[in-house]
């Protein structure tokens, strides 16, 4: 090699003279030096991929500085490569096969095992937005200049049939509706109420985050209230404040505008003799109570334990199969949810949850530990009136591993109500509503279809979140209505609710889905060429993103690093599928954005200090 020849040139002129002017051919074997590429990042706990490499027929050597405890970065240059592997074999086909396996190990992130971290197990919602966290780039305040909203220029895409005409009472202008904690989709409910001539009073619960009060989804437009009141320590004082704010207007309904407002809405509506779910089922919002109630009713429920002290849950965590899920009993969205892979990690997160403030204010008082349900996660959106439940839509979450995160949301896909899955899920979800005593208003059931049947993750007694970006898609699929409209019908329009279909129409009027954009790269944005391409797709309806020129994009690993939401819909499913594939192709090729050059220089791998060298002994 060059090493021996260099020594000969300096110390053995005779030997140097005998060396050929060029390497002799053909070579005695086929080989190459492979610079390893990491598509993930984190603190290394083991290196299973290295052991696989060492047993490849073509393996010669591996040079790496990665050991247990090392931090591996995404490979963007030679200096961030996790190592160099030399492969050589007399059979070129075997060499190529080994190279293919090595690249496959890289692609599926099998080179390393990493120390686990908080993983988002719930769909991105506004509820995860707090002033302590970075602003969610997927959703931003309506008044902020960083929000980008793009609509289709084709009215047919957004119309998809005549919208149902909504009637109202002759006295609507003299009536007012109370919406408790209107945020996320609750803002759309407020605007739907106002569009029918009613005034709206916003009631903010005790401890509700000031930041959340200003969070307005882009699809909601400008929020206007007749008045705003704060929940008081005493229920009677809260009711009094509402009556004083209403003045001469008649209060005709009290609706929960978000997860945090459910309990208050039940109490206020019951006290004011309005349409209500009441308080006869205590703590129905508590996820632990929900599971206990459906278990007692003979329905499939989650194995679980909960408590305010470690000794309350340690026996369960010592006997349950891992991974397990830990979360506050009254969490909103993915607030505090973590997938724990061993008891030490579970103990650490258990104590952590009592030290941090909850998303909507206040502190957690109890932690729920549950079995990890395996299967696809579905959503059943329904609206009830006097115990009659109507399904407005069934969805399935498209969740996949990406960027070293186990649960990244890629989208939400509507499910045909005539499908076998829907026929299993809908009766189960309605049974849960009956057990929990939910007779009025919207509900949002998250259910996993396990090998042993459907199992409740949680029942949310409010409208589907996600900032209501799905509304235009739902209206297009049904021919004019979504859970938002039916929610208002259930409280204010008995006749319209009665003629609303029991299930969404089948087949749907079109094909569509919500595509959540995923970034595989990071950097400062200097251009957004992907936006123009998305806008020109045949199935494009709507896009909302917080990323524009000057924004800094992170790799998508959770809801905070999501970069946008796109609604695609078309009468021809082949057109829809082609457009979805185009979007995913742009993500993988990093074509959504142009990034500022980092200025990093590629350096020769030999300049790195390699601390571990593994050499094959039998070549």
Automatic annotation (TrEMBL):
Gene3D superfamilies: ATP-grasp fold, B domain. The keyword Lyase does not apply. SUPFAM superfamilies: Glutathione synthetase ATP-binding domain-like. It comes from the Eukaryota. Residues 291-492 form the ATP-grasp domain. GO terms for molecular function: ATP binding; ligase activity; metal ion binding. InterPro entries: ATP-dep_AA_Ligase, ATP-grasp. This is ATP-grasp domain-containing protein.
């Amino acid at each position: 090699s060059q090493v021996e020849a260099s020594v000969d040139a300096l110390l053995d002129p005779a030997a140097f003279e005998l060396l050929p002017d060029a390497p002799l051919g053909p070579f005695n074997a086929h080989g190459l030096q492979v610079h390893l590429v990491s598509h993930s990042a984190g603190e290394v706990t083991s290196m299973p991929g290295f052991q696989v490499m060492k047993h490849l027929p073509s393996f010669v050597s591996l040079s790496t500085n990665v050991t247990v405890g090392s931090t591996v970065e995404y490979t963007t240059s030679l200096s961030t490569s996790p190592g160099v592997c030399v492969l050589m074999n007399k059979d070129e086909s075997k060499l190529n096969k080994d190279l293919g396996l090595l690249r496959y190990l890289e692609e599926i992130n099998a080179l390393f095992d990493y120390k686990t971290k908080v993983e988002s197990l719930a769909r991105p919602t506004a509820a995860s937005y707090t002033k302590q966290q970075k602003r969610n780039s997927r959703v931003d305040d309506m008044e902020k200049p960083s929000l980008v909203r793009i609509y289709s220029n084709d009215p047919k895409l957004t119309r998809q049939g005549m919208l149902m005409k909504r009637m109202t009472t002759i006295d609507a202008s003299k009536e007012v509706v109370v919406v408790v904690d209107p945020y996320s989709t609750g803002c759309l409910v407020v605007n739907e109420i106002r569009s029918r001539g009613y005034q709206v009073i916003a009631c903010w619960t005790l401890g509700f985050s000031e930041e959340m009060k200003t969070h307005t989804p882009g699809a909601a437009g400008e929020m206007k209230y007749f008045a705003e009141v704060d929940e008081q320590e005493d229920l009677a004082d809260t009711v009094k404040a509402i009556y004083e704010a209403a003045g001469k207007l008649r209060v005709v309904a009290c609706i929960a505008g978000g997860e945090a407002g459910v309990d208050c809405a039940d109490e206020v509506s019951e006290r004011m003799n309005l349409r209500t779910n009441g308080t006869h089922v205590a703590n129905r919002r508590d996820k632990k109570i929900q599971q206990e109630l459906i278990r007692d009713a003979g329905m499939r429920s989650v194995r679980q334990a909960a408590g305010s002290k470690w000794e309350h849950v340690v026996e369960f965590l010592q006997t349950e199969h891992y991974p397990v899920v830990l979360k506050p009993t009254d969490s909103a969205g993915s607030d505090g949810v973590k997938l724990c892979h061993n008891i030490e990690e579970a103990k650490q997160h258990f104590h952590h949850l009592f030290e941090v403030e909850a998303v909507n204010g206040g502190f957690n008082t109890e932690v729920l530990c549950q079995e990890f349900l395996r299967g696809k996660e579905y959503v059943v959106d329904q609206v009830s009136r006097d115990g009659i439940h109507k399904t407005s839509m069934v969805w399935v979450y498209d969740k996949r591993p990406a960027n070293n995160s186990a649960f990244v949301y890629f989208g939400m896909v509507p499910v045909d109500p005539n499908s076998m899955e829907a026929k299993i899920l809908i009766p189960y979800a309605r049974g849960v509503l009956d057990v929990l005593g939910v007779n009025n208003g919207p509900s949002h059931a998250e259910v996993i279809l396990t090998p042993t049947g459907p199992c409740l993750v949680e029942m949310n007694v409010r409208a589907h979140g996600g900032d209501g970006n799905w509304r235009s898609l739902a209206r297009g699929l049904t021919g004019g209505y979504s859970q938002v409209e039916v929610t208002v019908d259930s409280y204010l329009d008995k006749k319209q609710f009665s003629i609303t279909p029991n299930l969404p129409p089948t087949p749907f009027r079109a094909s569509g889905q919500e595509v959540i954009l995923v970034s595989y790269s990071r950097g400062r944005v200097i251009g957004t060429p992907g936006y123009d391409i998305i806008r020109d797709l045949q199935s494009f309806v709507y896009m909302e993103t917080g990323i524009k020129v000057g924004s800094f994009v992170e790799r998508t690993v959770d809801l905070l690093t999501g970069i946008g939401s796109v609604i695609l819909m078309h009468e021809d499913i082949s057109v829809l599928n082609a457009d979805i594939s185009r979007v995913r192709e742009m993500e993988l090729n990093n074509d959504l954005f142009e990034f500022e050059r980092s200025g990093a220089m590629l350096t020769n791998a030999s300049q790195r200090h390699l601390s571990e060298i593994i050499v094959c002994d039998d070549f």
